[in-house]
Amino acid sequence: MSKISIEGNSSGTGTFTIASPNSNTNRTLDLPDNSGTIITSGSTGGVSQAMLASNVGATGPAFSATAGALTVSASTWTKIPFSSEQFDTNNNYDPTTNYRFTPTVAGYYYFTIQTFMSVNANRGAVSVYKNGSSTIERLDVGTTINGGASFAANGLLEMNGTTDYVEAYVYQEGTGTTTINTNAALTLFSGFLARAN
User: Fold this and answer.
1) 74 in a structural domain
2) How far apart are CA 20 and CA 28, in angstroms?
3) Is there a contact between 166 and 128 (Cβ–Cβ < 8 Å)?
4) Which of 15, 47, 80, 123 could join 173 in a cystine, given CB atoms 3.0 to 4.6 angstroms apart?
């Protein structure tokens, strides 16, 4: 038969009381067969991302950013400097230097990029670059509205939580240059943790 041992701390002066609720029903509390610290409703920072079951939602990194004015030359991939954060829950997006998202929690992330360009962009593309290479890309004839064309791409990427990063790029085939619309509802870059590893 296993035994239960309750040990006090020789340095402490407080008294810990295990109290039962006001109940008329017998209850059994089973302790897990492993070592660790018991987490209570008053604990802070005690539950890590890895401790959650795969089907449990969690508070992982998420961000959304919008871009300033940008002129895009024809037939070349251009990184979009999304420099204005709408939110960045874990400070993983850099809006001032390299305009990239480097999450610190490993897992699968869902990214969305969309742009609205001037009418010169007859055909265009947007892409989420992972570690410097195009990974989620959408090439299309733009949906023309209000004198411009809209392009969007989205998808899931696995990120290692340490060195992997993503950036947003745009490409246009037209005559001369085209301009990115800075309306926050039309041009944005966002992502969030869908499932932790």
Assistant:
1) yes
2) 12
3) yes
4) 123
pLDDT for 153: 93
Output b/e per residue, 101-117; b: 16+ Cβ within 10 A.
bbbebbbebbbbbbbbb
User: What 3 state SS string does 69-84 have?
Assistant: CEEECCCCCEECCCCE
User: How many domains would you assign to the chain?
Assistant: 1
Q: How far apart are CA 146 and CA 156, in angstroms?
A: 31
Distance CA 106, CA 72 (A): 33
| pLDDT digit string, tens, across residues 61-119 | 999 999 988 888 888 899 999 999 999 999 999 999 999 999 999 999 999 999 888 75
Residue 50 placed within a domain: no
pLDDT in tens, 30-65: 888 888 888 887 777 666 666 666 555 567 899 999
**Residue 35 resides in a domain:** no
